[in-house]
Design goal:
By secondary structure, this protein is an alpha/beta fold. The chain has a single domain (2-315), classed as 3-Layer(aba) Sandwich (Rossmann fold), CATH 3.40.50.1820. The protein contains nine helices and eight strands. It has helices at residues 2-15, 90-98, 120-140, 155-166, 201-212, 218-223, 226-230, 263-271, 292-309; strands at 41-48, 56-62, 70-76, 102-106, 145-153, 175-181, 246-251, 276-281. An eight-stranded mixed sheet has the order 1-2-4-3-5-6-7-8, with helices on both faces. A hairpin with a 7-residue loop joins strand 1 and strand 2 (56-62). Helix 1 packs across helix 5 (201-212) and helix 3 (120-140) crosses helix 4. The N and C termini lie far apart (60 Å). Keywords: Hydrolase. This is Alpha/beta hydrolase.
Length: 316
Amino acid sequence: MFVLTCVLVFVISFAGSVAFKMKHQPVWTKAFRVDWSDKVGTVYEDLSYGPKEANKYDLYVPADTGRPAYGLVVYLHAGGFTAGDKAGDKEMLEWLCSLGYVAAGVNYTLFGEKNPQASVYSQSLEIKESVPAIVDEAKRLGYPIDGMAIGGGSAGGTLAMLYAYRDAKTSPVPVKLLFEAVGPASFDPKSWDTYGLDQSPEAAAGLFSAMAGQTITPEMIEDGSYVEAMKPIWASMWVDKDTVPSVIAYGAHDKVCPFKTAKPLVDALRANDVPVEYFEMPHSGHGLQNDSALYRKYMEAIRDNLARYLPVSERK
């Protein structure tokens, strides 16, 4: 019963995190929104990248046509791996497109009664499958892609990290930047104490099995062999000296994605001398809602690092 309770608490908590953005948006957020029209760009909705029902993406292409090449920015939605939709990131995708990028919001098969076989791992494979389809479609529409960035929030942040850190070497175009907020990046049970995983190998095994899409036993938790089984979705374990520059943000009071899970990621990035801008929100939880000034700096860092590592001007 304790194991089931821990898993249910996780699912309910993370499902409630579909929108990690600030609920009441300050005036400064207007700088990161755009009045969308055909003068800004065009959106193509519900394009397919695979055979599953959820294998759909929206593609935003800028009105500025005729460039020899374009940068692509993929943004992955939040929702605790169990909920959410690309439509919820419409404002973010419109803003990214207004900067001159081809932008894509991608759906993936959500874990739940309808799809009990889905896992963080299977979702990461769907994201990996989506990128070549997005690049091909952009080219077909007259927007050849020569580089990309990937980002997301919460669950989408984790999936973005897995693509940028684990799968970048197989990407059809070079990955230049990762940006994400409050995505689980590590799976030491001691860091998941808000769910009681530090107290129960059984609870840790149950939750981690669901996330990894394979059986992990309490014995594996106790002897440490679970680490290798979790590596496919353990983002911080994929960080090395070749990891792409990263912009990341976490809330010090986050209990949905336990704040302690961020430390191994930050440590790994710094130990490997990866260019990183880390924003630790001292007064915020999962929504990053209580540190408006820092949240603004995080958004500015996304904009500035896109300009640095995926510049639009060089492609005109």
